[in-house]
Structure to design on (406 residues):
């Protein structure tokens, strides 16, 4: 492969990753949103969650820029219709995970007018392939998840005095498999981390064990968080996901050993400095968090100074990082309200969907990776890998800083 072709490839790669922050790339991921409908006496409380990138596509956003919450609020008020008509008595913005926007709408209902038919037209005027996941909760403690798309935009809320029919196990399983599959394919930060794992692995066998470690880790914390056995801080988890990308990318760049040692020493001084700031000022108010990420980063940078040792422990490291990503996977289930009926089937199915998406992504990436490696001289191949890793490092650092401080 010539230097000219190498430069063209590197330039194209750079443009792709830079443009990943623009609308054009996000349009290639599935457009999704989530709502939870709680029936409470004479009210229906609806919470609606959507990715921020989807809100930026709305016509309302062009008028209310840069207020994402106000844009989504205005769009929902105009695009969600209850039949018989019900009075909207309150609407407010919600605090949601980084990269999403949430709105709560409260409707006054008359028991004589139910069952209610909900017509959901949100986002279809800008993205016809949009998929919406709605969860209905009743006071009997039952809930049901419904998939809404352009062809099927309506669903029914049954009488409060009658027990609503539970979803069949088949509906739960396939619905949550689809949800998990969608979530991994639309989660750009998770996809970036999977790409880094692939760049670190020298064989398909090593990739298999590394991906298995990642699976074990995120499956464990997904269960713990979705079951409310552990309730993590969303902001910290989202920041830590950025950190896993940063330190994994540092290893993937494959720096000389002397540079790795300098970076290790530099990280020690950096975290001591941050800890002093945390203790003496209010700029950083979480000393325990600084100590935790400091120990994680310093230990990892020390480990990767020996390439053979790092390779041997890579499945374990992927498992540790997977526990962080698992908490991120659980956020969406907690926000939309996982079904109480057939709970274990729903949780297991969601995880299966995540795994299917992960397998698809790794398969495509591995085939592309091996093709490029086969048709590229070793010298140029390592340059390409280092360039991509550097770009991913920058993206991870951006996420770490913005999610932690903004």
């Amino acid at each position: 492969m010539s230097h000219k072709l190498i430069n063209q490839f590197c330039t194209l790669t750079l443009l792709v990753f830079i443009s990943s922050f623009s609308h054009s790339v996000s349009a290639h991921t599935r457009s999704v949103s989530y709502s939870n409908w709680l029936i409470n006496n004479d009210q229906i409380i609806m919470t609606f969650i959507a990715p921020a990138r989807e809100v930026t596509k709305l016509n309302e956003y062009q008028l209310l820029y840069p207020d994402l919450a106000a844009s989504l609020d205005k769009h929902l008020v105009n695009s969600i219709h209850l039949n018989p008509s019900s009075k909207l008595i309150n609407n407010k913005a919600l605090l949601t995970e980084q990269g999403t926007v949430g709105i709560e709408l409260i409707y006054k209902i008359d028991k004589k007018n139910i069952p209610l038919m909900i017509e959901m037209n949100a986002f279809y005027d800008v993205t016809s392939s949009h998929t919406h996941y709605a969860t209905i909760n009743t006071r009997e403690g039952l809930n049901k998840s419904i998939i809404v798309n352009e062809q099927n935009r309506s669903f029914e809320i049954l009488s409060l005095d009658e027990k609503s029919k539970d979803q069949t196990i088949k509906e739960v399983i396939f619905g949550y498999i689809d949800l998990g599959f969608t979530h991994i394919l639309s989660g750009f930060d998770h996809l970036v981390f999977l790409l880094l794992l692939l760049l670190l692995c020298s064989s398909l066998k090593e990739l298999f064990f590394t991906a298995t470690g990642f699976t074990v880790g995120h499956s464990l914390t997904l269960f713990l968080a979705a079951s409310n056995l552990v309730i993590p801080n969303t902001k910290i988890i989202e920041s830590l996901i950025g950190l896993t990308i940063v330190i994994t990318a540092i290893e993937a760049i494959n720096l000389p050993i002397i540079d790795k040692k300098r970076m290790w020493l530099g990280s020690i001084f950096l975290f001591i400095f941050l800890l002093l700031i945390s203790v003496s000022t209010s700029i950083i108010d979480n000393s325990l968090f600084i100590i935790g990420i400091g120990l994680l980063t310093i230990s990892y940078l020390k480990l990767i100074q020996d390439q053979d040792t790092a390779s041997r422990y890579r499945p374990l490291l992927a498992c540790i990082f997977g526990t962080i990503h698992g908490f991120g996977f659980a956020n969406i289930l907690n926000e939309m309200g996982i079904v109480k009926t057939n709970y274990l089937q729903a949780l297991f199915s969601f995880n299966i969907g995540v795994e299917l998406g992960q397998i698809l992504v790794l398969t495509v990436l591995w085939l592309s990776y091996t093709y490029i490696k086969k048709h590229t001289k070793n010298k140029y191949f390592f340059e390409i890998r280092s360039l991509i890793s550097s770009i991913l490092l920058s993206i991870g650092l951006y996420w770490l800083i913005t999610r932690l401080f903004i």
In short: Residues 3-21+188-405 form one domain. Confidence is low (pLDDT under 50) at residues 1-29, 160-165. Strands lie at 32-40, 43-51, 80-83, 87-94, 100-108, 116-120, 131-137, 143-148, 154-157. The longest helix spans residues 343-374.
